[in-house]
Design brief:
The chain has helices spanning 2-55, 63-68, 71-110. It is mainly alpha-helical. The chain has one domain. Helix 1 (2-55) packs antiparallel against helix 3 (71-110). The chain crosses the membrane at residues 6-26, 33-53, 73-95.
Length: 111
């Protein structure tokens, strides 16, 4: 009977871990799409403002500014930011898990 309980607990833990992973991945994809759309909207607005107000014509902006406003660079930076935030989230979850394990070990050694 004990082996059956252990097997059930292991199956439940694996299912919960898979569900948490799926939820984290779905949230990560939604946040990435939202950030990319937001960055592209900001790039379009800033480019339009730069060409319409500051140059008042088809004159090209300086090379450095056009490089900074390029959608590919904005996409790269937003993806980099997203993966850094995801890494931070995973690190926080790991720290929380370690703290929980330490408190469990401390509670079992006291009794």
């Amino acid at each position: 009977m004990t082996d059956c309980k252990v097997a059930v607990v292991v199956v439940v833990v694996v299912v919960v871990a898979v569900l948490v992973l799926v939820v984290v991945l779905v949230v990560a994809v939604v946040v990435t799409v939202f950030v990319l759309v937001l960055v592209l909207v900001v790039v379009v607005i800033v480019r339009g403002f730069w060409q319409a107000v500051l140059f008042r014509g088809p004159k090209a902006p300086p090379m450095l500014l056009s490089l900074l406003l390029s959608p590919s660079l904005m996409l790269f930076l937003s993806l980099l930011l997203f993966f850094l935030l995801l890494l931070l989230l995973l690190l926080l979850l790991l720290c929380r898990h370690i703290a929980r394990e330490r408190s469990t070990i401390a509670a079992t050694t006291k009794t």
